[in-house]
């Protein structure tokens, strides 16, 4: 059985993923702000460094999966937090444990979002995240933006995260480590509980071909199953994909894009 590290598994999608993996017999390590096996603030460089150190101490012979799930929504309104946690809290954690993943032929799954298909992402920020990746500089550049535009930064971090997974997959794959992304639609968790009335109107207006069986939000189990599959050895042929779990919204909006 494997050693699965997951961030943000105290609640929501992460908690459900952790419980599925535990039921499968795996050892699961939750890194979270609170209630984790390792408590750390992954929005800070110090928090990430401490968590990475701790994982090296506990698992010197390697880990099987790094699932980068912790994130905050635009409802939170803090653009710097969105940038630091959603993008750097995922990519820096994955990079920090790549050596541990290589030791056991492991894999990495990052949690993106189907907001990347909706045209709301600030592509200038996506470019800075992917190509510059200088957290301090980017935080300095975005510090004066109106928190009311946080949704465009949320979508930008999730777009950059999916692109990061695609970019890393060739190099990491050649070292035996798969890298994939899951892009969920709207899911019933603490995150969506925080949505404002205006945001809920936007959620309900989204075209979802399956209509999620008449429910505007999915259950976290639906996303957790996809994450558990992608991070399992059964998915060993899958590397560099962005798996949309969104009832077909991405396909509807981009039906001509077949790869
Ligand atoms: N819920 C949705 O509709 C939805 C849709 C698309 C993508 N997502 C993504 O799925 C992931 C999980 O979201 P969720 O809906 O389960 O949210 P959630 O709020 O239920 O869970 C987020 C978890 O991250 C942890 N966390 C928050 N700040 C942290 C920090 N600074 N350091 C460490 N941990 C921290 C929280 O304590 C919590 O356990 C996020 O990356 C989110 O962007 C969610």
From TrEMBL:
<dbReference type="InterPro" id="IPR051122">
    <property type="entry name" value="SDR_DHRS6-like"/>
</dbReference>
<dbReference type="InterPro" id="IPR002347">
    <property type="entry name" value="SDR_fam"/>
</dbReference>
<dbReference type="InterPro" id="IPR036291">
    <property type="entry name" value="NAD(P)-bd_dom_sf"/>
</dbReference>
<protein>
    <submittedName>
        <fullName>NAD-dependent epimerase</fullName>
    </submittedName>
</protein>
<dbReference type="Pfam" id="PF00106">
    <property type="entry name" value="adh_short"/>
</dbReference>
<keyword id="KW-0560">Oxidoreductase</keyword>
<dbReference type="Pfam" id="PF13561">
    <property type="entry name" value="adh_short_C2"/>
</dbReference>
<comment type="similarity">
    <text>Belongs to the short-chain dehydrogenases/reductases (SDR) family.</text>
</comment>
């Amino acid at each position: 059985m494997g050693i699965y590290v997951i961030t943000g598994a105290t609640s929501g999608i992460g908690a459900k993923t952790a419980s599925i993996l535990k039921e499968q017999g795996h050892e699961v390590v939750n890194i979270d702000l609170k209630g984790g096996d390792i408590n750390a603030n992954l929005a800070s460089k110090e928090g990430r460094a401490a968590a990475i150190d701790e994982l090296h101490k506990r698992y010197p012979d390697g880990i099987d999966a790094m699932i980068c799930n912790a994130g905050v929504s635009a409802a939170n309104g803090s653009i710097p937090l969105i940038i630091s946690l959603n993008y750097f809290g995922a990519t820096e954690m994955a990079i920090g444990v790549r050596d541990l993943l290589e030791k056991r032929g492991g894999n990495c799954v990052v949690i993106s979002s189907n907001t990347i298909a909706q045209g709301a992402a600030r592509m200038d920020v996506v470019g800075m995240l992917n190509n510059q990746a200088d957290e301090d500089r980017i935080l300095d550049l975005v510090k004066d933006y109106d928190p009311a535009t946080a949704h465009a930064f949320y979508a930008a971090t999730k777009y950059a995260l999916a692109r990061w997974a695609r970019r890393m997959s060739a190099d990491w794959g050649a070292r035996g480590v798969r890298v994939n992304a899951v892009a969920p639609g709207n899911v019933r968790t603490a995150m969506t509980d925080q949505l404002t009335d205006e945001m809920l109107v936007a959620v309900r207006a989204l075209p979802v071909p399956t209509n999620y069986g008449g429910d505007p939000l999915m259950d976290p189990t639906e996303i957790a199953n996809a994450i558990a599959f992608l991070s399992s050895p059964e998915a060993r042929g899958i590397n560099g994909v962005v798996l949309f779990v969104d009832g077909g919204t991405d396909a509807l909006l981009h039906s001509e894009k077949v790869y």
